[in-house]
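Moderator note: this is an archived Q&A kept for reference. The question asked for a predicted structure of one protein chain; the sequence and the answer are reproduced below.
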Amino acid sequence: MNRNEHAVHSILTRRQFLARQGLAASGLALACLLRGERSLAGSAAESVVFPLKVSENHRYLVDSEGKPFFLLGDTPWFLQKLPLRDVRWVLEDRKAKGFNTLFLEILDDSRLPSRDALGNVSFEPELDITKPVEAYWKYADTVLDEVTKQGFFVIMSDLWYGYGKGLWMHHVTPESARTYGHFLGRRYARLQNLMWMRCGDRNPDQRLADSANELALAVRQEAPHHLHTAHMEHEFSSADFFNREAWLDVNMAYTYGASYLQVTKEVQRKDPIRPVILGETGYENEPNAIELLPDAKKGDLWTPYRMRRNAWWAILSGACGYCAGTRLWRFESNWRDVLNVKSSQQAPLIRRLLESRPWWRLVPDTEHKLVMAGFGQWKQADWVAAAFSDDGSLAIAYLPRAGTIQVALDRLRGAVQASWFDPASGQYKPIEGSPFDNKGNRDFTPPASNAAGDGDFVLVLEVR
């Protein structure tokens, strides 16, 4: 996330955000909301056996028993900024909504030095990453223990280099990174639910790349069960800079443009193949480089529709996970309201649809063997992302706007149950005449609008 860019627009977007959200919810109202949303948090979260590892075909993550793990993340980032009671509030809310992964930071990326909610500083001297202050790290331990108790997978930034003029990048060398990496690895080897994330909003020069490599190798020496990825500048992926590094386990895409463009490119990398996640895209009610979308202009804001469109585009283009994001990471005075913005309620619907089906078998329909016509134009906002399973049991297509698509039903192995899934509400609408014979081509036209008043729908075809 381009933190400098966010700061430029912070007053405007906060005013617009508050106008849309109204008064803060009471604690009682939130508790009721949580009880009502627990159905979105599938029991799969509680059954994950950490640590995670890369699947045999290198396309997704599995737990220690081989069960596929669909990664659905949110971005509280520097959670230690909050006192423990508020940390628990955030965790309970995200779990109730259905998130199973949190993107966090062990060091504050918004200021130097890094201070936690108790006033502890991370290092002494304050910018020497080889001299940790125990009180700071004890509170970080406490927060991570709370996260672990709730069953979350954690993608943890170890040292945020920073966008523009940078942040911690000015205070790291390969030698200090090695020392710091051994410290992190030893301290957190006890945790089974971690994936470490290098860099942070920065494409590294040689010194920074060497520092990232040394840090990664040191952590891996101390905690070989931890996974690793990297967060570059937007419009770049981890593999653009670290493709040849043995420590890179998961390739993170980061884009403010139409997500299928970058995700497709990364999924098609062959040397080597790695799982791909959409680790970051636009945040609701922020303007992050939104002009890169084919149907937006500079100054527009990311809306729930634009966010869920990028999410569905990414997943059906081959990503094995998606991270939603909001202004929550700022922890402004209205942060409890921000917990409940629409995008945070809608993102978990992706997980709910996929986890009840063999999503890990889906193969992107890049050659239009499934959606034969009506798939829109590449690089445009009407592009239809679709995928079908390698065993012919499932096919899914995301239509970002109203229109008719033609589908080859013979891609499925038996009678086809067809329904429309509303990505804004999670409701299904059976398609009249279903089940259909798995022969020939058939046109499908979604309802006029979904629960949010938008035109996007998901076509679900399955053999039962």
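Archived answer notes: Residues 3-45 have pLDDT under 50 and may be disordered.
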